[in-house]
Design brief:
Order of helices and strands: HHEEHEHHHHHEEEEHEEHEEHEEHH
Shape: elongated
Strand content: 15-25%
Helix content: 40-55%
Oligomer: single chain
Number of helices: 13
Strand order of the largest sheet: 7-6-5-4-8
Radius of gyration: 49 Å
Number of strands: 13
Length: 478
């Protein structure tokens, strides 16, 4: 029986709210009806009954006596003219008394001399409205309790559904998206419970105000937290399409290191000197990323300058032969050399070679290749000149000496001295022989990959696994 009483109470609360809407559907629109003509003023009789004034006054007094706010008004009627005086606590009661008196039959006009009582004692009666509101609220408390219980039950159901972590982890591709789905379910159920609770107690106007205010606040927060929201969305996108794996050697814009983990806010790298580097995911998502680990083959390059009078083709051939003889340089792709530029006093040649990063460290390989090619070129008679600067003194220029005398500059020679030509092809064989010791030395050097940073990353991931790491080897990699 308690359930049916509760249901009947809810229906009775909803029925009055629905009645005005139904009535508005049945009544024709005001714009469709013709404009009503103003009512004509009633005519005043030329005769007046001697006892009419007393009856009118008594009738008005009886009516005012039933209204607590108008009970203190004095009524005097003479020849159908009603005179009202006294005081009321509310200004609206003054107009109300005049309207009531004018509706009594036989009243010609109303002289309203009622004043509002602005004293504290006179306005204590206005507390009666507040008392009535308090009584109404107390009567509404059982329904409010029921509505609150319904809202809590719906919210609890949402939390229970969201707590089914295994289900959401099966449906979602990663833990970050699963947590996002659970949060969305909790939010929807909580908001739904509040909406239903407010509708049960008839606070639909409050509901509209709350939703409108929430929309305005949401827009304001969206502008204020634009960077945070952008970072959150970037984390979601990176978790779905991962650009790298754990321990990959990457360069993000200008920041280089090995990837430790991808969290919901930042990408954590370990730099090559062993420091932690946190990059916001919004930056990572928009950045240019170079991943050295994806392709085990990597090319190293360096530049050497030879004298402008030397044989460039022979220098290129000799340098490529030296690179090919190095054990850590791959045969495919084969090493090469190309002329990069012609300087003021030299010709710059760029040498290029490929290594397998799983067996050779890039930095070590480059450090071994540069002196090997340089020694081979010098041993073959190729000059690796430094920048040359020529100083010219005009004839007759006076140079001050330490003792204060003036020295005359020596006149320029009549003939330009002949530049000594370096050895070329005739020293190629000697250069090849000279390259052999360097090659043997390079081959004997340790060029194995440096795995210290890689081991540090693995040790940290094992010591601090962090279940919220978004890196997943099961997800596709862009």
């Amino acid at each position: 029986m308690t359930f049916w009483r509760l249901l009947l109470t809810i229906l009775l609360l909803i029925a009055p709210a629905a009645a005005p809407a139904t009535a508005s559907m049945l009544v024709p629109a005001a714009t469709d009806a013709p404009a009503a003509e103003p009512a004509a003023e009633p005519q005043i009789d030329d005769t007046h009954d001697a006892g009419a004034d007393a009856r009118i006054a008594q009738r008005i007094r009886d009516i005012f006596g039933e209204i607590p706010a108008l009970s203190d008004i004095n009524v005097v009627v003479n020849q159908g003219v009603v005179s009202l005086d006294g005081s009321v606590s509310d200004a609206a009661d003054k107009d109300r008394a005049e309207r009531i008196a004018s509706r009594v039959a036989g009243v010609v006009t109303v002289e309203n001399a009622v004043e509002r009582d602005v004293s504290v004692d006179g306005n204590l009666g206005g507390l009666g409205g507040l008392s009535g509101k308090i009584d109404s609220f107390l009567n509404l408390l059982p329904l409010i309790a029921v509505a609150l219980g319904v809202a809590l039950a719906i919210s609890l159901a949402g939390y229970l559904i969201a707590s089914l972590g295994n289900v959401w982890h099966r449906l979602a591709p990663n833990s970050f998206l699963a947590e996002l789905i659970a949060s969305a379910i909790r939010f929807v159920f909580v908001v739904g419970g509040v909406v239903i609770a407010l509708d049960m107690i008839g606070a639909t106007a409050l509901l509209g105000a709350v939703l409108g205010g929430a929309g305005v606040v949401g827009i304001a927060l969206g502008f204020a937290m634009r960077d945070t929201i952008e970072n959150y969305v970037a984390s979601l996108m990176l978790s779905l399409r991962q650009p790298f794996r754990a321990n990959d050697h990457v360069v993000i814009d200008t920041m280089e290191g090995r990837v430790i983990r991808l969290t919901s806010r930042a990408t954590v790298l370990m730099t090559l000197d062993g420091n932690h580097l946190r990059i916001p995911n919004s930056t990572v998502f928009k950045a240019v990323i170079v991943n050295y680990t994806r392709n085990p083959q990597r090319r190293f390059e360096f530049e050497l300058g030879i004298d402008a009078e030397d044989d460039v083709s022979e220098a290129r051939r000799l340098g490529v032969k030296v690179l090919r003889d190095l054990d850590f340089v791959l045969d495919t792709p084969e090493p090469s050399a190309r002329v990069e530029e012609v300087g003021d006093s030299n010709i710059v040649i760029k040498f290029l070679g490929w290594i397998d990063q799983t067996r050779t460290d890039w930095f070590k390989a480059r450090s071994e290749a540069i002196p090997a090619v340089k020694d081979a070129l010098e041993g073959a008679g190729f000059a690796l000149p430094e920048p040359i600067y020529r100083l010219r003194f005009d004839a007759g220029a006076h140079l001050p000496l330490a003792d204060g005398n003036i020295a005359q500059a020596a006149p320029p020679p009549a003939d330009r001295p002949v530049k000594k030509q370096p050895a070329k092809k005739q020293l190629a064989a000697a250069g090849t022989a000279a390259a052999s010791p360097a090659t043997a030395s390079a081959n004997a050097s340790d060029v194995s990959p440096d795995t210290e940073v890689e081991k540090m990353v693995d040790a940290e991931r094992i010591a601090d696994p962090q279940d919220k790491d978004l890196l997943d080897h099961g997800r596709p990699v862009e």
